[in-house]
Amino acid sequence: DAKTTQPPSMDCAEGRAANLPCNHSTISGNEYVYWYRQIHSQGPQYIIHGLKNNETNEMASLIITEDRKSSTLILPHATLRDTAVYYCIARGAYSNYQLIWGAGTKLIIKP
Amino acid sequence: SAVISQKPSRDICQRGTSLTIQCQVDSQVTMMFWYRQQPGQSLTLIATANQGSEATYESGFVIDKFPISRPNLTFSTLTVSNMSPEDSSIYLCSVDRENTGELFFGEGSRLTVL
Fold first, then answer.
1. Is A24 helix (H, G, I), strand (E, B) or coil?
2. B40-72: pLDDT as tens digits
3. Are B62 and B38 in contact (CB under 8 A)?
4. CA distance B81 to A8
5. Taking CB atoms and an 8 Å limit, are B33 and A97 in contact across chains?
6. Which of A22, A24, A69, B84 could form a disulfide with A88 if both were Cys (CB 3.0 to 4.6 A apart)?
7. Within 10 A of B30 (CB to CB), how many other CB atoms are there?
8. Tens-place pLDDT, residues A22-50
9. How many helices (H) and strands (E) does chain B have?
10. Residue A7 contacts residue A87 (beta carbons within 8 Å)
């Protein structure tokens, strides 16, 4: 599984869009990009995943560059409850579950 | 989504003792996963537990230290044996309910070893 790199922390104003970047320059063709978040003292929560195309669900949008070497998770209208550590993970569709969990990005939403 | 219940949610234990953590899922799943999250760190997979077979342990984790049971398709236990302060962590149970790579996690069991 490809390694991912993320900024250690980011701030965002409440109500604004939070854009969280992730670099995965060694990603291979069959590896998906997954995003999870972990709110303090809780288990991680799945957000979204994608392979090539941009994806959107009720929580967020995922924008993957054409060369697939980076992606951006977008929380369109951040709330205080979105304060969490966000993890970007690259994983092959048929790999085992030893997901390489990096340090993630600590996103702080400010009032 | 999947509802995953873990017990205990937290515990304080003495060095040298053992603690068993339970994980109950609200539906049948083939694979269950146990993760460790040390203080201030990210997640590390301990083992994968399949019903009816021995658990598969990741590098650095052994069955004698972390025995796992998987008696049926909705339940698993992880035991942390002969604990030391270095075992102080959050232990998380997880499932991939639909085999999509989308993992659902329990709330975790926060273990402190004195």
1. coil
2. 888 999 999 988 888 999 989 999 999 999 999
3. no
4. 34
5. yes
6. A22
7. 13
8. 999 888 888 889 999 999 888 999 999 99
9. 0, 11
10. no
Both tokens of B9, joined, read: 């949610």
Cβ of B58 within 8 Å of Cβ of A91? The answer is no
Beta bridge partners of A33: A50, A90
- Residues of B near A (Cβ–Cβ under 8 Å) read 4, 31, 33, 42-45, 48, 58, 92, 94, 96, 101-108, 110
Contact B60, B66 (CB under 8 A): no
Chain-chain contact of B33 with A44 (C-beta, under 8 angstroms): no
Separation of alpha carbons A90 and A27, rounded Å: 7
Cα gap A65→A61, rounded to integer Å: 13
